[in-house]
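Q: A reviewer asked whether we had any structural model of the full assembly, not just the individual parts. We don't, so I'm hoping you can provide one. Inputs are below.
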Amino acid sequence: MVPLSWYMMLSIAVFAIGVFGFLSRRNIIIMFMSIELMLNAVNINLISLSHYLQDLRGQILAFFVIAVAAAEAAIGLAIVIALFRNKATAHVDEVKEMQG
Amino acid sequence: MKYYLLIPFLPLTAFVINILLGKEVLRDKAHWPSVLAVVGSFFVTIVSVLPQVMSGKVINEDLYTWIVSGTFNVSVGFQIDPLTAVMLIVVTTCASLIHIYAIGYMHGDTGYYRFFAYMSLFTFCMLMLVMANNFLQLYFGWEGVGLCSYFLIGYYFNKKSAADAGKKAFIVNRFGDFGFGIGVFMIFLTFGTLYYTPVFANVASIAGKTVNFLGWNVDLPTLIALLLFCGAVGKSAQVPLHVWLPDAMEGPTPVSALIHAATMVTAGVFMVARCSPIFNLSEIAMNTVAIIGATTSLFAATIAITQNDIKRIIAYSTCSHLGLMFLACGVGAYAAGIFHLYTHAFFKALLFLAAGSVIHAVHTNDIQEMGGLKKYMPITYAVFVLAALSAGGVPGFAGFFSKDEIIWSAYASHSSVGKLVWLMGTAVAFFTPFYTFRLIFLTFHGKYRGGHHEEHHGHDSHGSHHGEHHIHESPKVMTIPLMLLAVGAVAAGWVGIPPILGGGAHFAEFLKPVVGHPEFHGTHAEEWGVMGLSTAIALCGIGLAAIFYLRKTDLPEKIAKQFSVIYNILFHKYYIDELYHYTIVKPTLWVADKVIVAITDARIIEGIVNGVPGAIGKFSEKLRKVQTGLAHHYGIFMAAGAFFIIALVLLLR
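A: Here is a predicted structure for the entire assembly that you could use as a starting point for your response.
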């Protein structure tokens, strides 16, 4: 039997990789993938705790997160494509029209 | 059915109709609602209210609760006793005739509907004032008539002098109304109610009490009476707040006749008579009323002698007659004061309307440019003379009985200043016919002196310059009200013929339940003497005017030159306007300019108003730098924020 703490360790590791990737990379696709990693780290956490606590609500919530992530991926990729068509770049530092 | 409610609310309805529909729908028919309403009020007064009051019934009913706050409780209520009935007759009669006259006088004016709307609103406020059964409603009517007066003085608002005169009337009245307002507060503080009946019933309980007012211990009845009298001084244009009334002549003539002669300005006298139980408690207040009245009366009468504006002369005459009414109230003869109010309303409204008829014909206000109008305007001339005989106190006419009543009351009363004010009143009895007949002789007799100028500065510029042969009598819609008012000016006084002349003094008897009857001491011989003296002196005034302005027309100028100092003082109205200009207006404007505008406005208010948004702007200028537009900066902020919050939660657990 795999103890709960291992799942948590995995979740933390995946989340940390996601945060690190999001903050250190400038390629918008990579940053996007990092966000997905963070979301999935949360999913691991939810599922493992759901099993541990014998409570189905965690799994339901995980489904919601997956649905949101799918929607977010669709919109995000559409934005990336629109951006690439206009600017011919996927580098976020070159996109700063919204500064104050 | 409370028919008496129609009296104030018919004019209010007319006001609402006119202000909503007058401009677009009614236009030159705008007089219909107003005239019908006020004539309706007149008939309700005569048919429904007067018989009830004559039979001794006093109506005192609350219509609906206006304000309830703790122990403070005021209703919109109506009290109709003999005093109110007299005022109702005066107001509705004069208002009806003046409204009809105004149809002709204001014909073709651009603000026709506006004029009638405000006249109706004024009539409503005036009726609310006289019908009130509590001090707050009295105050409501009081301020309402002041507001309408302001609207109507400034009726020709694109003329600067008219706009200024409106402001002057309003601001000068503030001084009086301030005192009046405090007086009403004092009444509430003292009696715990504002209804007339309980206040006057308990009034004896405050006799001799003192109260701390601004650090002085003053006699309570004196204080309340003088504060109330403050309001009367402003509203009725008594010295020292008389300055607004002559300037108010900038308004259309029907306004001068209705508001500034017959009704609104007499509200002060009405109020003093209404509060007679309070005034009776204080000899100081009574003497103040008498002295102020007598002073104003003499003061305004002497000014009127030298003026040349036909309406201003009559305005000073109004001041003077109002002074006589206060004189009567001050010696305790309230009934005589109200009697004079009643007769004065007729003959003074008539004088104004006749003057308006003259102005309508010659398009100028300056009597030096008139003359010889008798043959062109016979009806106007005839009614003018009747009004003047009445105003001058010639025996048989309305003004004689009321003026004689006042002068006799002053002589015979127990008042400590009675003899003094009697002398002043007798002097006024000389000046009144003198200036009125000076006006008549200069206007209607002699040769026409106008037509020298291409441009005349008449009040109504609805017509080009008229040469002498264009002068014509006014239309019937104006002359018929004149003739009806002339009947009043001659006959109104016959209800109060004193017993010594074979009358029954019915007027004083009628008012006795409200204002009481003063005790006189004097013999019949004295009464005949006083009456004979004032009559002889009045006839002297007419005679002297005839000598000066009919026979030896160069004499007035010679005398004016001989006594140029006195003449100048009178011509410049005792320099009161100048005095106020330098002592009050200029310092106020200086303070406004140097302190209010320069410091309060420019520094403090604009400092706050501009400073706060300025500071916010500067702060945001800094803050927006945070918004770099770089996605990873936002990411770092989010991560740092999350880290910080989690750390905080963990550490504080």
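A: Points you may want to mention in the reply: Chain A has a mean pLDDT of 90. Chain A has three helices and no strands.
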